[in-house]
Each structure stands twice: as structure tokens, then as C-alpha cells.
């Protein structure tokens, strides 16, 4: 069974050192290891559940006090990886747009997974805390009723206090979609 794992660190240097330990400790695939706003570091990995658990543990060992957040999702929705990398193929014709904005990277990923599982939609992208003051945004496309259902599922997955906002724009303009999605 596949899993998705995340560690978020207070400091970029500690995050890089921990990332190296994670990748050396278990047979996992690196999705991203990057700095995010404001001056934090996130590593996302995928692999078998046990390997991802071991890698997360290895990443936390040396810098326990530097870990801000962690996440393990067993059996993530198949579209989540492409949404995280921004490589989802999308049809921009006659779409409704759903948005979920969160205060944390992990909560956005949880929301995206729940949204993808909760409706017949495309989670086109998960924008992770870059240039947004540490906030993250989940972008969902599809028929308006499906998008509403997916957004509802997504916001239910976000812990109390971490949801900034959410919205559904039915039949969003093509100009906005092309500009922002």
C-alpha cells in the first residue's frame, strides 16, 4: 500500500539535513524538499507505508524540537501526487472552481486528499506556502455540485483553527482559470 509522508521544519538547514537522513533511511521517493514561507522547510515523500513511517521517524530523530508538523496519509487518492507537483492535466472548459485555503501545509494536503475522495472532481493543484505568508491553497475543478461536495469533504478534514477560507465559483470565467490555474 502506498503512503504519503511530510515533515515541516522551522529551519531550512535542519530540514535539509533531516531530508538527507530520511532518504537514506528507507526506500522512499522524494516528491519535494523545499523552503516555504516564512523561512520554513518541507519534505514530501511517498512509498510503502512502513518505509514512509521509518523515513519520517528518521527525519525527526535529530531535530525533534525543530519539527513544526508531520503527516502520514495511507492510501492517498491517486491524483494527489500530480496535484502536489502541479502536473495534473485539466480541461478548462465550463468548469466550476473550488478553493480551500489553510494556515498549514499538512492541513492543505489532508484537505486535498479528502476533496479528491469526496467528489467526482479534479484536484488540479495544491499550492504549498510559497509567496502566501505560510498559507496553502487547494484548487478543485469540476461540475458545480461535485465541487461543492468536494470542498465540503476537504474542509471537514482540516483541523479546527487551520482553515482560513473556502469558496466555490460556479462556471468560473476562462480568463481567470487560464490566469490562475
TrEMBL record:
| BMC domain residues | 3-85, 96-181
Q: Which CDD domains match?
A: BMC_PduT_repeat1, BMC_PduT_repeat2
- GO cellular-component term (any): bacterial microcompartment
Q: Read off the InterPro entries from this record.
A: BMC_dom (IPR000249), BMC_shell (IPR050575), CcmK-like_sf (IPR037233), CcmK/CsoS1_BMC (IPR044872), Micro_shell_prot_PduT (IPR011238)
Supply the alphabetized keyword list: Bacterial microcompartment
**Where exactly are the transmembrane stretches of this chain?**
none
Checking Pfam families in the record gives: BMC
Q: Which Gene3D superfamilies match?
A: 3.30.70.1710
State the SMART domains in the record. Answer: BMC (SM00877)
Where is this chain's protein located in or outside the cell?
A: Bacterial microcompartment
State the source organism's domain of life: Bacteria
UniProt main location, coarse? other
What the record says about family reads: Belongs to the bacterial microcompartments protein family.
Could you tell me what this protein is called? Carboxysome shell and ethanolamine utilization microcompartment protein CcmL/EutN
The species this protein belongs to is: Caldanaerovirga acetigignens
Amino acid at each position: 500500500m502506498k503512503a504519503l509522508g511530510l515533515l515541516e521544519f522551522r529551519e531550512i538547514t535542519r530540514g535539509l539535513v533531516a531530508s538527507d537522513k530520511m532518504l537514506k533511511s528507507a526506500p522512499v521517493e522524494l516528491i519535494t524538499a523545499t523552503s516555504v514561507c516564512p523561512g520554513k522547510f518541507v519534505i514530501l515523500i511517498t512509498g510503502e507505508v512502513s518505509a514512509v513511517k521509518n523515513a519520517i521517524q528518521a527525519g525527526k530523530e535529530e531535530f525533534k524540537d525543530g519539527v513544526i508538523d508531520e503527516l502520514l496519509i495511507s492510501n492517498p487518492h491517486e491524483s494527489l501526487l500530480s496535484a502536489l507537483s502541479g502536473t495534473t492535466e485539466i480541461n478548462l472548459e465550463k468548469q466550476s472552481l473550488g478553493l480551500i485555503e489553510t494556515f498549514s501545509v499538512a492541513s492543505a494536503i489532508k484537505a486535498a486528499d479528502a476533496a479528491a475522495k469526496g467528489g467526482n472532481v479534479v484536484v488540479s493543484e495544491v499550492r504549498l506556502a510559497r509567496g502566501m505568508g505560510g498559507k496553502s491553497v487547494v484548487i478543485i475543478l469540476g461540475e458545480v455540485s461535485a465541487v461543492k461536495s468536494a470542498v465540503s469533504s476537504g474542509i471537514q478534514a482540516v483541523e479546527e483553527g487551520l482553515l482560513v477560507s473556502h469558496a466555490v465559483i460556479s462556471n468560473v470565467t476562462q480568463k481567470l482559470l487560464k490566469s490562475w490555474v
